[in-house]
Amino acid sequence: MLSHLKKEMQKLADPKKAKDYAWFFKTGKGEYSEGDVFFGIVVPLQRKVAAKYRELSLPEIQGLLNSRIHEHRLTALLILACQFKKADEKKKEAIVKLYLANTKNINNWDLVDLSAPKILGEYLLDKGRKPLYRLAKSPMLWERRIAVLSTFAFIKENDFRDSLAIAELLLKDTHDLIHKAAGWMLREIGKRDLNAEENFLKKHYRQMPRTMLRYAIEKFGGDKRAFYMKKD
């Protein structure tokens, strides 16, 4: 089944899009996704492939996650998310174990954003959140982003504690992709509870990285945005 999936994806390859994606996802020397290889397949088509091959075994999914092709890894994660949604507790545990064992392969922001909330976040809804704090303190950029994005699952349940705590933990993070992720989660909190977001901002806005702050206050009115961006 895995070989059929790979052949199908090869046929969907678009060299022009592949070149564009390589630029967009920063695959050049010294960039955050240096050396990543793209087929140039849009996400909706990958979702169709994932749905068709949703019964792929975990060892076969591991084979996809090991691939140097970006779309192979994303499709593997889409299949895992699909399987997780319908899995019993034992299978969910196996999926999460596989997920955490492959953080080195979940190595771009789209891979993280389309998988972390739906797999690790959903799994931890009724469990202890310590794994997220371990990831948030990781030297690996993508593990820190997984920690942030996993909390989106909690935010959707109006549980903001860990999102706020991890955002606070990452206030001094040096990477723009973490600033964007944390600011995004703060904005999502604000959509549900503006007071919760503003309590965080009033405490931390002077120390927040500018990108994190801009993302957090994106939906605010002009005067309020100006107040926070002044930072004096």
Structural descriptors:
mainly alpha, single chain, 16 helices, 232 residues, globular
Q: Could you explain how this protein is built, in words?
A:
The protein is an all-alpha fold and 232 residues long. It contains 16 helices and no strands. 67% of the residues lie in helices and 0% in strands. Helix 3 crosses helix 5 (70-86) and helix 9 (130-136) packs antiparallel against helix 10. It is globular and about 55 Å long. The N and C termini lie far apart (60 Å).
List the helices and strands and how they pair.
Elements (H helix, E strand, L loop, with lengths): L1 H11 L2 H10 L18 H10 L5 H8 L4 H17 L2 H13 L7 H5 L3 H7 L6 H7 L4 H10 L1 H4 L5 H9 L6 H17 L1 H11 L5 H7 L5 H9 L2
Biggest sheet: strands, sense, closure? none
Q: Find the count of extended strands (DSSP E, 2+ residues).
A: 0
Give the termini distance in whole angstroms: 60 Å
Number of helices: 16
Proportion of beta-strand residues:
under 5%
The average pLDDT is: 96
Q: Rounded to an integer, what's the Rg over CA atoms? A: 19 Å
- Give start-end ranges of low-pLDDT stretches: none
**Helix-strand pattern, N to C?**
HHHHHHHHHHHHHHHH
As an assembly, this protein is single chain
Helix content: 55-70%
Question: Which of globular, elongated, flat, extended, rod-shaped describes the shape?
Answer: globular
Query: Which structural class is indicated by helix and strand composition?
Result: mainly alpha
